[in-house]
Amino acid sequence: MVGELLKLHNIPLAIKNVLTRQDLVKIMRIDYEKICSALIELRTKKTLQILNEFFFENSETVPAILGSFKKRELSHVGFEIYEPLDLVLHGMGHAFNKLNQAFGVRFALRDVCRFPASQSFQSRVNAYVEIMRIRVELHGREIMLELFDIHRPVDIFSVDGKHRFSKRFADLLLVTSEEHSIDRDTRWNVFSRDKIWHYAIAVSSPEEVLRLHDYFTTFVVGRDAYRLPFENIVHNKSDGSFYSKIINTEKKIELEFVATQQ
To answer: Which residues are CB-neighbours of 31 under 8 A, at least 6 positions away?
Structure first.
């Protein structure tokens, strides 16, 4: 089966320098952990919890942006995916069908949207990037993943020992209680090689994005742990998103504040 997938997706895999069955199995395992981890984070973490972790000693910043929230829940988690997007969809559909049949729970793909990343983002990673947003229903709740397919060779590394958490992730996805989450060290192990993964928080309007961007531009001055990946607001005309980002380099967390530009 892996050999057939390698042949079927040989052109996009070659761009990523994934040339053997062993390489493909490795990236599929890495992607699996990221997807499971992101789904668990979306089910168990609230916006305020992430803000408090992100700003930590600068907690006075949190009240300054509370009025911008549209929801208590995160908008999405975004991250780089190593497999071509068509292959990811095939794998997720297959995995969800198996879980539904084995455990009688509700896992379903509800909506898929694909579009090019903004030029600002493509300049950031120095490669062409396609984004795929996937809306997933888990235990009766709809949540969203944002996957970044970056057209460049991937860093294929040994996965021996690294994927001891895989069964744990699968078990956590089956738990209906939102009290079961992954710890900070586990999250770090999963996303440590991903330089663009982020939590996204929906705010009320593009004007709020502008306000926050101006606020963060001043906030990062004199605070070495924080930086802005983009000097200006990013507007992706493909999907109408309008956003600003800020990174905590010590905690290795990136936050996106996003609204829709009509």
So the answer is: 81, 82, 83, 88, 91
At 138, the pLDDT band (50, 70, 90 cuts) reads confident
Share of the chain above pLDDT 70, in %: 84
Phi/psi for 253 (5° steps) reads -125, 135
Instruction: List CB contacts of 190: < 8 A, sequence separation 6 or more.
Output: 33, 34, 37, 165, 182
Q: How many helices (H) and strands (E) does the chain have?
A: 10, 9
* 218 vs 211: CA distance, rounded Å: 11
Instruction: List, for residues 28-85, the tens digit of each pLDDT value.
Output: 888 888 988 898 899 888 898 999 999 988 877 887 777 667 678 899 999 999 999 9
Beta bridge partners of 244: 257
* DSSP states along 152-176: S-------TTGGGGHHHHHHHHH--
Cα separation, 109 vs 134, whole angstroms: 7
- Mean pLDDT (the chain) is 85
**Are 180 and 45 contacting, i.e. CB atoms less than 8 angstroms apart?**
no
Which residue do the tokens 């609230």 mark? 46
Task: Show Cβ contacts of residue 119 under 8 Å, excluding neighbours closer than 6 positions.
Answer: none
